[in-house]
Specification:
Layout lengths: L1 H4 L20 H8 L3 H69 L5
Membrane topology: Single-pass type I membrane protein
Keywords: Coiled coil, Membrane, Signal, Transmembrane, Transmembrane helix
Pfam family, one: EMP24_GP25L
């Protein structure tokens, strides 16, 4: 048939993406601004430090959000525990009251 005579070709593509300070072409900047080797290295370090500071700020915001979520969850659990104890206590009091009334009606207790 027509389809079986065609051979499938497999292709592999490797994609290398640089982000942040790694993506900047410091050689082009050095030529454009006529920077020395030391100045180029300083620019690279400046870019890396800026990335680290941004990452730390992101981690601080993320930690604050997680802490708020944790505190909110803890607060809800405490409220639920108090509600559970209240319901159990109320149920016990109601059962005692109901059984005393029942046994009094049956003249089993005075």
């Amino acid at each position: 048939s027509i389809y079986s005579s065609k051979k499938k070709k497999e292709r592999s593509i490797d994609l290398d993406v640089d982000i942040g300070a790694d993506a900047v072409d410091y050689n082009a900047i050095a030529k454009a601004e006529s920077l020395s080797g030391l100045e180029v290295k300083m620019r690279k370090l400046e870019g890396i430090i800026k990335e680290i500071v941004e990452e730390l700020d992101h981690l601080k915001r993320r930690e604050a959000k997680m802490r708020d979520t944790n505190e909110s969850t803890n607060n809800r659990i405490n409220h639920f525990a108090f509600l559970t104890v209240s319901v159990l206590f109320s149920s016990g009091v109601w059962q005692i009251w109901y059984l005393r009334r029942f046994f009094r009606c049956k003249n089993l207790i005075e």
